[in-house]
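As the work plan foresaw, our protein records have gained a structure token line. A representative record is set out beneath this paragraph:
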Amino acid sequence: MDYVPDRVGGLRRRDSSVGPLALVGALAVTAGVAAYAAWPAGRSSASTRKRRALIAYLRDHLGGSDAAIRVVHRLVSTHQGTEDGMLFRRLARELEEDRSVVRDLLGRLGASGRSMKRVAGYASGAVLSVTAGGEPGDLSLFRTLEALSIGVQGKRCMWRALQHLRPLPPAVHGIDFVELEAKAVRQWEAIEERRRDLVARTLSATESRTE
């Protein structure tokens, strides 16, 4: 954990935080992948255009998922042996499962998850994973949980959208988008419960002195 000198010559923990929007697309990646798989190739120019747009969209979200997973793994390592650590370990496993769904869908459509944006996202995810976390009461942890919460909501929106694909292509047969959305809701509720618990320990509107 990083420390920096404080005003009286001691040490204090560095407030390294993750902005909420940094991970918005992270968990949504999973949902996006499913959408891509939904479009068969080569029906018409319009269909091809939509399919290509969907592929690009899902690849972008796949990069966001990479970043979110790296951040959660960082939280697992910094909260070992705690109740929070158990939560983050479960989230890491579930996010990896969701990402696997996206990869599988891309494979069914004959596309890979590789893209230049994903490479760039992987690099930024490495930076985010270093700055994520903190102890309960640190603003950095509060911001990290808020970012993950927003990201999971984005993924939920993706799964919901995929439920309305018409016509439903063979590539998505056997994928339960309703259950995937419900799973995202459970993830969001777990993160939000912890984030709300940290409000009183992290934030205060009580006046003390001018900052």
Residues 19-201 form one domain. Residues 33-42 have pLDDT under 50 and may be disordered. The longest helix spans residues 45-78. The beta strands are 3-5, 11-13.
